[in-house]
Amino acid sequence: MTQFTASITQGENRTITEFQLHDGLRYRFGFQLGFVWLLLLTLPLDPFYYRQLFSVRDSGLHFQDLFRITDYTPFWGQYHAWGLAAFTGWLWALLAALPLAIVWNRLDKKFEAHYPQWLYAVRVILRYRLATALLAYGFLLLFPLQVPFPSLSELHTKYGDFLPWKIYYHSLGVSSTGYECTLGFIEIVSGLLLLGRRTAVVGAGIAAATLINVVLANFAYDLGQHVLSVYLLLLAAVLLLYDVPRLYQLLVKETRARADRFVPAFTDRSIIWRRWAKVAFTLFFLVYAVLAYSSYHSDRWPYPGKPGLAKAAGFYNVRHFVIDGQELPYSLTDTLRWQNVVLEQWNTLSIHGVQRVRPNLQGPAIDYQRDYENQGNGGRRFYSYTTSGEDILLVNKNDPADSIAFRLQRPNEATILLDAARYHGHTLHVQLDLQDKTYLLHLGRRKPVTVF
C-alpha cells in the first residue's frame, strides 16, 4: 500500500477523519467490513466483463471500446434482470466480505494508527469509480448517443406499442432547449469535481441529486440499469457521509466547522506513478470524448451507418397489395396486407400491419449491433436491406430467418414497385406511394403551425 503520513492537530474537536473508537470494536469492524464490501462491488470480478472487453471487432477503435471499460455493473452470483432479486449479488458480496474483514480485524494490530490512510484510500477508489461512470455517461448525453431523436419509423408507431423504457427515451430524445445535453454537462461537471480532493464533496452532492432522478427513472420505466444506478448513488452517499459532520456544523448549526487536516504524503516513486495515472486517465477521456463526438457528428450512432436508397426516405402508403394475382383492399383486420411502410435514411425498412410482431425485448444498451431503432418496438417489423442492381433483399432484424427478395422499380421518386416471386410461398406485388407529411417536431414548438 502507498505510504501516507497524517497531520492531525491534537486537542481540537474530534471528527470522522480521526479514529475515535466510540463503539469499540464494533466501529472498527464495521469500517473494515464496509471497506471490503465496497471494494468487492467496485473491482471488476465478473468474467463476462473481460470476455466482452477483449472481444475482437473488425473495425478500428470506437468510443464503445472505451465505454466498455467504464461500464461495469456489480456482479456476484446469478444476475436477475429485474426486481429486488437483482441485488442478491450484493448480499453474496457482503457474505464474502465477512470472513475477509474478520481476518483483517484480527491481524491488523495497528489499525487505529493506519485508519486515516485507509479512509483516504477508500475515498480515492470510490471517487474515481464514480467519476469514471459519470464522465462516460455524461458524454453520451452531451452528444446525444444514448438517447437519440426518434427515427421516422418510431414517429409512426402507436404509443401503446412501445415498451416503457422506449417511451422514456423518446420523451427525453425529443426534449427541447438542450435538456439532454444539459444533463450530460451536469454529469461531466460532477465527475470532474470528484477528481479533486477539495471539490469532491461538491461533486458528490451534484452526483447524488442527479442519480436520485436516474434511479427513479430506472425503476419507473424498466430501463434495465437499476443495479448500476443504485450502486453509483451508494458511492455518492458514502462520499457525502464523510463531510456530514462539517456540513451539519456549517449549514445547520451555523458554527465554525473544522477543516479536514489529513494531508497524504507520497513517496517519490508513488508520486511518479500518481502523475502517470492522472495523465493516462485524462488521455483516456479526451480520446473517448473525441470518438463519441465523431460518432454523433458523422456516423448517425446508434442508428445504422449504411446509407439507404437514394432520395427514398419517407413514409409510404401501400396503394396496391397483390398476392397470387389477387389484390387485397386496405383493411384494419387483414393479417396479410401491409398498411404502411417507412424507409429511413439508412438501410432500414419498417412495415406496419395487423400481423403480430415479434418485438426485440432487450433493454437499452450501447452495443455494436446498432439495433436501437427496433428495440422496445412492438408495432412495426424492421428489416435491414441490401441492394444489387434492381434486386433488394430484406432481412428481419428480430428474426433473421424472415427474409424477402424483391425486384425493385422506381417509375418516379414518389413511387416504389416491389415484386417477389417467393413471399411465404406466394407471389407478391406491392406499390408504395410516398406521402408528403409535415412533422410538428421538425418544425419546432415556437414556430407558427397551421394544422387546417
Unreliable sequence segments: 1-22
Sum up the overall morphology in one term: elongated
Largest β sheet strand count, sense and barrel closure? 8 strands, antiparallel, barrel
How far apart are the first and last residues' alpha carbons, in Å? 73 Å
Helix/sheet category: alpha+beta
The tally of helices reads: 13
Adjacency order of strands in the biggest sheet: 1-3-4-5-6-7-8-9
- SSE order in H/E notation? HHHHHHHHHHHHEEEEEEEEEH
> Could you tell me the number of beta strands?
9
Outline of this structure?
This protein is of the alpha+beta class.
Please tell me about this protein's structure.
The protein has 452 residues and is α+β, with helices and mostly antiparallel strands. The chain folds into 2 domains: 25-298, no CATH class; 314-442, Lipocalin, CATH 2.40.128. Helices cover 44% and strands 15% of the residues. It has 13 helices and 9 strands. The chain has helices spanning 25-42, 47-53, 63-70, 88-107, 111-142, 152-155, 164-173, 179-195, 200-221, 226-241, 244-252, 268-298, 440-443; strands at 314-323, 326-327, 338-343, 348-353, 381-388, 391-396, 403-412, 415-423, 426-434. It has an 8-stranded antiparallel β-barrel. Helix 3 (63-70) packs across helix 12, helix 5 packs parallel to helix 12 (268-298) and helix 8 crosses helix 9. The termini are far apart. Residues 1-22 have low confidence and may be disordered.
